[in-house]
Amino acid sequence: MRLDALAYAQNHQSEALTDLQALLRIPSISTLPESQGDMQRAAQWLADKLGSIGLQNVKILPTASHPIVYADWLQAGPTAPTVLIYGHYDVQPVDPLAEWLTPPFEPTVKGDDLFGRGATDDKGQLYIHIAAVEAYLKTAGQLPVNVKFILEGEEEIGSPNIADFIQTQLDLLKADVALISDTHILNPHTPLIITGVRGLAYMEVTLRGSQHDLHSGAYGGVVENPLNALVRLLASLKDEQGRVTIPGFYDDVQELSPAERAALNNGLVTDESVLAETGAPALWGEAGYTTVERKSVRPTLDIHGIKGGFIGAGQKTVIPAVACAKVSMRLVPNQSAEHIAQLFIDHIHRIAPSTMEVSVEKLNCSDSAVVDISSSAVEAAAEAYEQGFGRRPFYLREGGSIPVVGLFSHLLQTPVVLMGFGLPDDRLHAPNEKFHLPNFYRGIETVIHYFDILSSKRR
Amino acid sequence: MRLDALAYAQNHQSEALTDLQALLRIPSISTLPESQGDMQRAAQWLADKLGSIGLQNVKILPTASHPIVYADWLQAGPTAPTVLIYGHYDVQPVDPLAEWLTPPFEPTVKGDDLFGRGATDDKGQLYIHIAAVEAYLKTAGQLPVNVKFILEGEEEIGSPNIADFIQTQLDLLKADVALISDTHILNPHTPLIITGVRGLAYMEVTLRGSQHDLHSGAYGGVVENPLNALVRLLASLKDEQGRVTIPGFYDDVQELSPAERAALNNGLVTDESVLAETGAPALWGEAGYTTVERKSVRPTLDIHGIKGGFIGAGQKTVIPAVACAKVSMRLVPNQSAEHIAQLFIDHIHRIAPSTMEVSVEKLNCSDSAVVDISSSAVEAAAEAYEQGFGRRPFYLREGGSIPVVGLFSHLLQTPVVLMGFGLPDDRLHAPNEKFHLPNFYRGIETVIHYFDILSSKRR
């Protein structure tokens, strides 16, 4: 059965690519109000596709914002394991658009790579599971495991509605393993199982200094400029050692044991590899920690954008009435994202100048999560990677955030497997995002192996 | 002759308004590359208008960027004084567009005010001179003085070509007084002669941290974020006393004598008036100086915009590859703008982090200038204001910058009269810029008086 499915997948690579390109053409940017219609279109496209390959109970389930697509195939029998496949069909904004070499929503193949927004994050990776299921159903007419798809449209805005959804659908989502392909491997030939993700608290700080924009000649020096005040405030949030200065920020951070640190510093991520991936002239970070520690088990704070005044070509001598900053903090076990968000809010109000009206908004909170790598579901993933890529995977803690990982663990009590197929240089969230097509095809084969190995482990 | 001209002006207010609205409809934003055609249209509109009312030698003179409109009327005879009338037909950008209550380039009358970009700065004020000249020529067929118009299209970008232009046209521009209406009066009934303007050095600082935008999960904490680095760098440019920290910045600043300080603190500008004009919750500025000193005789530094990352609705977890800030410094006698710009460039390179590629660009430099209020040209202006407004003007140093003021004084050796008709709350450079129409009409009458008084003083 597995061999037929593999042959089908190998013989239908161009169809899978064509299908993925159709999905990538839909500009489903969840954070933009004007993308509402495209979010619906993407959900409908997925529901149609899932139905067309033989999945059942296909539903587009509404949430307070973007819908969740559900579908299942549960005829493998009660003793067969049930795999809950999670993916997200929403994508990041495309700014700065001018830096894209090909249009972000006209997916373009160049050499071995497919370029387009969402190519790797996460439309390309979620489509791997659709293609794997299709290969089994089109050849054997059945799967060796039960599967449930849950494809959400809000991951890039922090999955604000998924916790409520899971809590009200505990029976519908019941499974033996949650399988997520939304991470990366080490290089095109070396698979990687991600063993933990950081949490996130995403905040917006707004300072208002006057009732309308002012001429900097007439008022420069007498009315505090919100941009001047904002940079002072933001600069104070990190000290010279790269530590976040918000009181209480580190109180709950889990420090690793020497053995855990040694395991983490396994040489997979090196200063050289990070320099090569980013093109940065030098690395920088919290004193006392290695690069791999800084990017996985240490929390941090980043500014994502500052709004206010004039950023067009040339010059405008304006003191803006309002300045606004987007700031996020990546969090680690055992930091509570909600608690950290509140510490941030309290701190900003405490240090904000009296010359400004200050407001702080919490845009998104998600907790960090750690994967239990001793579970049989993870061991099956390691074996499947070995079949698909010809070598055993490595294990690595990651710095990104996937809100649903912690929720699946805590609310569903389901072990999570983070089986990614992206590459570190896929430029996710950036211009010229891509997906390495050999990994797309190997990914489909790896998931075919995974279903089979998981099923045989249970017997 | 004066009475006929005044009557003509009073009987043709609605024609003057209609004409001004036509000029305001041309979006001549000098800093935007895409406004090139509109700059030409505005220059042509002015040349046509000046020709149609009887001015001679009308020329559109090219510069390295936007053209200068010249026209004259020199038949008052060799003993009559010659007035060089300067104005600028370029305007500031309209950002943030969403805050305009009426479209910026559809001039709209509401009550006594005319709303639109350039209404007060400077199209409305330059049109006052056109209407005054028209009133004389349409009634008497002649003027009591010789006039030369020089209308430039680059004031809002710091007049980068006007110094060269003046130096190559010393004969053409020779005059006894340079008259500029590009400032404000105290309130609708109280005229004001501006006695000095600040200089300006406008800079752009760019930090590049990586070769492409990065995912803040994957790289947050290991690669320095250019926005984090930029806020730290910008915040360090002012200390807690509101003083600029660039070494040497204050070295050449002219300190006022106690008598000069007493004269400056004449009660015209009060904390209450500034609070009312701006709607700021509190004032703020350099320790040791009063509000009026801070806004006129003290230099300062303002951030005008910060580019990089994401400022749309919602969230994007990006570490931008590049962050860029627009920063200007207002300068006072005897600071050299070119020297201060170099100090700024040197300082930024000295303090910039080694994790970034740094570049600093000088966008614009202009020196401060002080007006000699003992000249007969200024005394004539005071008398003209008294005729037009029914009261003597006050005198005030201003905080804004008009590059040409210093150039007329130094290159042409011509005394400058800053005879403004705007109001402090005209929102120049901001959304909903306006011009108070009663001042527009009083301005035309005041300039008619000015020509006559100036002519009789010379006899």
Fraction in beta strands of chain A: 15-25%
What is the alpha-carbon Rg of chain A in Å? 23 Å
Architecture of the largest domain in chain A, CATH level 2?
3-Layer(aba) Sandwich
What is the name of the CATH superfamily of the largest domain in chain A?
Answer: Zn peptidases
Termini of chain A, distance in Å? Answer: 16 Å
Low-confidence stretches of chain A: none
For the record, the CATH class of the largest domain in chain A is Alpha Beta
Major sheet characteristics of chain A: 9 strands, mixed
Average pLDDT of chain A works out at 95
Provide the helix percentage of chain A: 25-40%
SS-based class of chain A: alpha+beta
- CATH fold title of the largest domain in chain A: Aminopeptidase
What is the overall shape of chain A?
globular
Number of domains of chain A: 2
Number of strands of chain A: 18
Largest interface: A-B, 102 and 102 residues
List the quaternary state of the chains: homodimer
Q: What's the tally of helices of chain A? A: 15
